[in-house]
């Protein structure tokens, strides 16, 4: 069984697992802010994980970097992609821990398809303003490394069905994807589209599994709010290291429970960035990259 760590502050409680440095549970005054998962078992649907060294998927698990072709293991066989990086199966090591903060570390690579070495550090801090997370990556090898990262929480606004939740975030564009493999086609404006949530509106029956961009940052932060008509809500903010945002309404076929939370994933780069190069981070030897975000009750 993977170890886990409980943080408490200001009415909030967070539970983080060593496996995948995953946020297993986050509550405020006993109310779930993310879809939890059971202690000790597998992590369903990548809930709460840190996806690194790439977010989302890589087509066919293949990419070329500095003229060298690489083949990653396929872990999403139904779409023939490499999904959500290499860090999520790993048990991260605690570096520091107290009642309101936790730092976990892990090393990624060299491994099949990723002949690079990264030292990752995830820091969680809980206070009266919510849960604040930062993930840093240091290139520990002597060659440049491709890199990207995102969190994978499924937010919960309240007890009403997801269709009734009111969503708002400022993104002018989204990435159209192929319906079968969810691979990039091209960026299109949200203006006039069902995916336009620049003004708050109910999600309704809209199905989303897309990355958004051209995001508005105010004072260095972007924000998303998700509110239940019953009066509760949850918010997430993130810094300019993440110019992309994956939104997924968690649609599942019967009899699997469907639309039980809204996946909200601030990403440093879009899907398949290892091939497109779009916003792909090139970490030079010894270089560090840090991305940060916060989740809080509304």
Write the layout of secondary structure elements.
Elements: E1 4-9, E2 12-17, E3 23-28, E4 31-32, E5 50-51, E6 57-59, E7 62-65, E8 68-71, E9 81-83, E10 93-98, E11 101-108, E12 118-127, E13 130-139, E14 145-147, E15 150-151, E16 154-155, E17 166-169, E18 171-177, E19 184-189, E20 201-202, E21 209-215, E22 221-227, E23 233-239, E24 244-248, E25 262-267, H1 273-276, E26 281-283, E27 288-297
Antiparallel strand pairs: 1-2, 2-3, 3-4, 5-15, 6-9, 7-8, 10-11, 11-12, 12-13, 13-27, 14-26, 16-25, 17-20, 17-22, 18-19, 18-21, 21-24, 22-23, 23-27, 24-25
User: Based on helices, strands and strand pairing, what is the structural class?
Assistant: mainly beta
Compute the number of structural domains: 1
Any idea of the CATH topology? Beta-galactosidase, Chain A, domain 5
Helix residue percentage: under 10%
Measured distance between first and last alpha carbons: 33 Å
Averaged pLDDT, please?
Answer: 97
Assembly state of the chains shown: single chain
Query: What would you call the shape?
Result: globular
Strand content is over 45%
Enumerate the strands of the largest sheet in spatial order, edge to edge or round the barrel: 10-11-12-13-27-23-22-17-20
Q: Can you tell me the residue ranges where pLDDT is under 50 for at least 5 consecutive residues? A: none
- Taking all Cα atoms into account, the compactness measure Rg is 18 Å
Which sequence of SSEs, written as H and E, runs from N to C?
Answer: EEEEEEEEEEEEEEEEEEEEEEEEEHEE
Largest sheet: 9 strands, antiparallel
Pfam families: Aldose_epim (PF01263)
GO molecular function, one term: carbohydrate binding
Protein name: Aldose 1-epimerase family protein
